[in-house]
Amino acid sequence: MNNFLAFTGPDLAFTDVLPLLIWLGTVCAVLLLGSLVPRWPRGTWAVVTAASSVAVVIQQLFKWRDIGREGTEAAFADVVSVDRFSVFGTIIVAVALGLVALVTHDHLTREGNDGPELYALFITAAMGAQIMLSANDLIVLFLGLETLSLSLYVLVASNRRREQSQEAGIKYFVLGGFASAFFLYGIALVYGASGSTNLTEIMGTFDTTFSIERADALLLVGIGLLLVGLAFKVSAVPFHVWTPDVYEGAPSPVTAFMASAGKVAAFTALLRVLATALERRVDDWRPVVWLLAVASVFVGSVLAVVQTNVKRMLAFSSVTHAGFILVGVEAAAHTGSNGMASSMTYLLLYTVLVIGSFTVVFVVAGKGDGATSLDDFRGLARRRPALALGFTALLLAQAGVPFTGGFVAKFGVIKSAVEARSYALAVAAMVAAVIGAFLYLRIMVSMWLEDPADDSSPAVPRLAGAVIVSTVAFTLFVGFFPGWLLDAAELISVYRVGAAG
Amino acid sequence: MLVSAAGAAAGHSASFPILSALVLVPVLGSLLVALLSDRRPEWVKLSAVLSSVVTAGMSIWLLASFSTHEGGFQFVSRHDWVEAWGISWHLGVDGISLFLVVLTGILFPLVIVGIDPHHDEKRYLAWLLLLEAGVMGSFLSLDLFLFFIFFEIVLVPMYFLIGGWGYDKRVYAATKFFLYTMFGSAFMLVGIIATAALARRDIGYFTFDLVTIAEQSSFAVSTGRWLFLSFAVAFAVKVPLFPLHTWLPDAHTQAPTGGSVILAGVLLKLGTYGFLRFGLYLFPEAAVWAKPLFLTLATIGIIWGAVAATMQTDLKRLVAYSSVAHLGFIVLGTFAITSQSLTGSVAQMVNHGVSTGALFLLVGMIYERRHTRAIAELRGIQSVAPVFAAAFMVVMLSSIGVPGLNGFVGEFLVLIGSFETARWWTVVAASGVILAALYLLWAYQRVFHGEPDEANSTFREMTLREGALMLCFIGLIGFTGIYPKPMLERIEPSVDRLIEHVEKHSDHRAPEHASDHGKEEE
């Protein structure tokens, strides 16, 4: 009570938000220098952006070690949680940002409009993602969500010479605005029911036993709306309808970023809200997540099969992947399961996979970013054997074939679901994976077994090539030696009241 | 008494990890082939041949140094792989897997040396070697997880082999093959994880180790049955068992000759081997419970396959359906669970691999010469190519199961063993033997007898290379047919061990086995 009367300012531990500060500095530098000095050597912006990512990854690795010594905590008046969960998530986002920045350079060079703006927006989006995944307060979470979303709206529409890009931007903006509104209303209702927006405080207001007289209806609707908002961002069925259009219309590097960092931010936020604030209401949200997961894996894979555009196929496949991660989230609802670790592993591996895949699509799409139909991939193995081989490895990984990172990811979530005795969910997900495999086979058939429509072979820019090679190498490496990653994921924990250390 | 509980101890303290080498040499060969330049085809071929021959040599060495009267796993090599998930690189061989490994080792070099892919030889050889590694790994794995990934990885090279080098409807057939098998494995993956998760209670730690789980854990009756069924779906698709067999005629017919030989020779055995190793061994109670179901499906498969084969107009499709029938015998013997029937099943797996592989090879040769597989268009080949016809005759008789050739050994043991525990199923299945004679002899008559018409009168006689290739197959057919003892005496101890394990965990009693006991006690 004393604290309430004698106001003391929050303890500002700036090292806890160092990733944000690094990225903020980079954004300012990029924008300022870009406008002050018009001509810079080619590639400056990509290198600077990638370097900021590397800096963040290094800083976060130190943080990972420090948390091992000092335990989890919350900073900035308990609105930012410092735990291995956020460190792991931040590393994924930073990796995504770095890889996408390299591809963006090739994208801008090919389209002939190099400039610092896109990089600044990417970094801002990454900041939003970082805020989301470390937020310990619903309001801060919402701020992160909006920072991420607003940057993405602009990024999606950034190719001004392509009409679909504009269209996708508007679609995403309108629908995303709705989702944000739902989310915000959810925050308000949860606040009404619990009296707080702080995640750990919200958790404290629930007893392990149920009490009907507390405003339960308010809370349930609030939880529902929060789930709608976040399910929209992770593109889980039935909130996925924007995904194919936006993924198809957006420039390929932006699509890669949305499918990777965007999903990571939304999933980590979802996991954190569910696992801390609503931990004691698990029986209320678990069935919802169950339904979302089953709907996503099936609708995603079935609709993916009937597409004729590779970008749309991958968009629907990302819906399936979201469903798989939700399987892990559902498993996390059971005590004693490692659903959280497996979901986070999945997110990391999927990030690498999806960026690699969309980079291949970017390369094949050619100038104008338009040639993404299945026919454009015909006979790619004859025209560009190495590119086709790399894409095949990535697609097999997405299908979950052994000795790839994709298999490790899928196996992890299925394993945690089975251990949590969600057998039906595990079987449903695996059956859906078989349907989904047909999609990857279709692309592979087109690349390997059909004759090319013409002899033109797409130019593979150097940086994009490097991104493809490194994503394939990482995927295969994890496929053979997953031990270190699984061990690290086992250490992931979320900040809780009184659970420090 | 035979060694029981945790008898995984290596019979040999082999310093050289021969089993790991059996898996890794083809992988390295495949990588080497893939990395060599397209412009040096002779180097590509040479390295592929060398790595497959080295593998074959090692498998024969394995056969020679296998200790005959030992029922447990030999040459065991075990290393932790993913400790967080209790996964280990655990390989071992016993009498059940030994001959399948040897068969794999021998078939691949024969296919690589003997059959031309006609185009893109480098990729073809790379996929083939990768396939060999996957098959070897599946037969040798003693870890559920390891088995699953080898079982799954086999699909990828086979998919590309059918899709890339097959006939007209190859893409359809390849996709069907991939999706069918993957559908089965979807259930098995959940089953495997559930098995490990549930066995943890008995074992105390999380492990996928087959031997540890089978020997140390016991599942509740209904749990065990569910788990068994989840494995059984995957194996039933792979075998394939009626009514999940429809992928097989398509895959076989559209696959290139080399692919068909491998598919029939070793790939289908993954399913029947799986029933033995992971069905009976892991879930004895459930396997005994499911006996009537699988005996019935097997018997239907025998009759159905035979009747369907009789009606085929395409020679390759006919052989494919005959596979469905033959594999029915293997499943029949497996689920009859007597010493003789199981030994017969294992022998039949190997023998079917040799004789049906040879049949596919011969059909491939006919296609090379005539560019058709339609029985109606072939006539009177015997008079223009007598040696070819003779080779076809021998292989066909072995497939029918004529005494003195290898097909008889397995089929006879299966029938005689099954008669004790599954009398009426065996009675029906035995008529399948007659049907086999019917459709194969009728096909032979239509293709080889009569006067050759104009198109068939130029049918080329067997070349020296083809002759040498067929000689290898016929040698195997004749040797096993006349002197099966070396094979059977290596299979039997492991089979007896398995039956003992089943009897310990269920109320099943095998009659032959009881008399064995009597002998031992004397």
Topology (elements, then pairings):
The complex is a heterodimer of chains A (501) and B (522).
Chain A: H1 2-5, H2 18-36, H3 44-70, E1 73-75, E2 80-82, H4 84-111, H5 117-134, H6 138-156, H7 163-194, H8 199-205, H9 216-233, H10 242-249, H11 252-277, H12 282-305, H13 310-332, H14 339-365, H15 380-383, H16 385-399, H17 405-419, H18 423-448, H19 462-480, H20 483-490
Antiparallel strand pairs in A: 1-2
Helix pairs in contact in A: 2-3, 2-5, 3-4, 4-5, 4-11, 4-14, 4-19, 5-6, 5-11, 6-7, 6-11, 7-9, 7-10, 8-11, 9-11, 10-11, 10-13, 11-13, 11-14, 12-13, 12-18, 13-14, 13-17, 13-18, 14-16, 14-17, 14-19, 14-20, 16-18, 16-19, 17-18, 17-19
Chain B: H1 18-35, H2 41-65, E1 74-82, E2 87-93, H3 95-114, H4 121-140, H5 144-153, H6 155-165, H7 170-203, H8 210-216, H9 221-238, H10 247-254, H11 257-267, H12 269-280, H13 284-289, H14 291-311, H15 315-336, H16 339-370, H17 381-384, H18 386-400, H19 406-421, H20 423-448, H21 464-482, H22 485-505, H23 511-521
Antiparallel strand pairs in B: 1-2
Helix pairs in contact in B: 1-2, 1-4, 2-3, 2-4, 3-4, 3-11, 3-16, 3-22, 4-5, 4-6, 5-7, 6-7, 7-9, 7-10, 9-12, 10-11, 10-15, 11-16, 12-15, 14-15, 14-20, 15-16, 15-19, 15-20, 16-18, 16-19, 16-21, 16-22, 18-20, 18-21, 19-20, 19-21
Could you please describe the fold and organization of this structure?
The complex is a heterodimer of chains A (501) and B (522). Chain A has helices at 2-5, 18-36, 44-70, 84-111, 117-134, 138-156, 163-194, 199-205, 216-233, 242-249, 252-277, 282-305, 310-332, 339-365, 380-383, 385-399, 405-419, 423-448, 462-480, 483-490, and strands spanning 73-75, 80-82. Chain A is mainly α and 501 residues long. Chain A has a two-stranded antiparallel ribbon. In chain A, helix 5 runs antiparallel to helix 6 (138-156), helix 7 crosses helix 10 and helix 11 runs parallel beside helix 13 (310-332). Chain A is globular and about 75 Å long. Chain B is mainly α and 522 residues long. Chain B has helices spanning 18-35, 41-65, 95-114, 121-140, 144-153, 155-165, 170-203, 210-216, 221-238, 247-254, 257-267, 269-280, 284-289, 291-311, 315-336, 339-370, 381-384, 386-400, 406-421, 423-448, 464-482, 485-505, 511-521; strands at residues 74-82, 87-93. Chain B has a two-stranded antiparallel ribbon. Mean pLDDT of chain B is 85; it is low at 1-14 and 513-522. Chain B has a domain at 290-522. In chain B, strand 1 (74-82) and strand 2 form a beta hairpin. In chain B, 74% of the residues lie in helices and 3% in strands. The chains are: A mainly alpha (501), B mainly alpha (522). The interface between A and B is medium-sized, with 28 and 30 residues.
